[in-house]
Amino acid sequence: MKIFLIIAAGFIAAGALHAQDPLDAPELEQSLQVEDFSSVIKSVWDVMKKGADEYQEQTTTRTEFETATDFEARLQQRRSDIATRIHTYVESKKLANRLFAVWLSAKLVHYNADTQTYSVTSSTEISVPPSTEDVMMTCPPNQYVSLVETTRRGYKFAHLLLKTKPEYSWHVDVKTARAAKDDESNVYFKVWFRFDPSQAFVGTAGQLTLVPVKIALVNKRDNTTYWSDDILK
C-alpha cells in the first residue's frame, strides 16, 4: 500500500511540474479561474517591471567621463533594447492574440416579477499588481469593468471589479429566473480579457493594459448563456 501511495504521489507531483502555463498553451482562447488569471497577469507584469527597472537604473549611472550627449544616446539605445526584448516576449507568447475568459461568481439578489428583472451582483475581485512609478496598470474606461486601487496599512492593492453597484438588472422571464435561482451556485459572470501590448513601454515607464472584451451571465453547470454583451474591441 505504501509503495502504491508513493508511486501515486510521484505521478501527481510530475503532473504538477508539467502543468502548462496558460501563456504557453496552444489554445488562444482559454477559460481560467480568478487565481489563475491573476497569476498570468503577474507573469506579464514581472517582464514589464524588469525592463522598466533596468531602464531606471541606467538613468542614475552617468559617469564623470560621459558628456550629456553621450549619456542621452546611451539611454536611448538602452530603452530601444529593452523595448525590443519586451516585444520579443509579447510575440513569443502570442500575447496580443490571446483571450482569457474569467469566471466571477454571481449573486441573484432579487427578482421583480412585475418588471421581469433580476438584480444581480458579484463581489469577486481579480487581484492585479498596483501601479508603481515604474509600471502603470491600466484598464480602458467601459460600462462593466473597473480597475480599483486602494491603500491599506501603507500597502497598495489593486483589483479588477465588475461595476455591479447598483446591481446589474437582468431582464428575464419568471420560469428562467426561478430555474436560475434554484441553481444559483452555478451561475457566474464570464468576462473575456485580452492584453494590449501596443504601448508596453511609454516614456521611461512600462505599461500593462488589460482590455475587457465581452461579458456574459452563464450557468457553468450546463453552459447556458442567459445574457451577453460586447464591451471593448
Structure commentary:
- By secondary structure, the protein is an alpha+beta fold.
- It has one domain (29-230).
- It contains 4 helices and 13 strands.
- The protein has helices spanning 2-17, 34-58, 68-92, 174-182, and strands at residues 29-32, 99-105, 107-112, 117-121, 126-128, 135-138, 145-152, 155-162, 168-171, 187-196, 201-202, 205-219, 224-230.
- The strands form 3 sheets. Strands 1, 2, 6, 10, 11, 12 and 13 form a 7-stranded mixed sheet that branches. A 3-stranded antiparallel sheet has the order 3-4-9, covered by helices on one side.
- A hairpin with a 2-residue loop joins strand 7 and strand 8 (155-162).
- It is elongated, with a radius of gyration of 23 Å.
- The termini are far apart.
- Residues 1-18 have low confidence and may be disordered.
According to DSSP, the number of beta strands is 13
Percent strand: 35-45%
Q: Could you describe the largest sheet, including whether it forms a barrel?
A: 7 strands, mixed
Overall pLDDT: 88
Helix content: 25-40%
Ends apart, CA distance between termini = 56 Å
The radius of gyration computed from the alpha-carbon positions, rounded to a whole number of angstroms, is: 23 Å
- Please state the structural category: alpha+beta
- Runs in which pLDDT lies below 50 for 5 or more consecutive residues are 1-18
- Principal-axes geometry comes out as elongated
Number of domains: 1
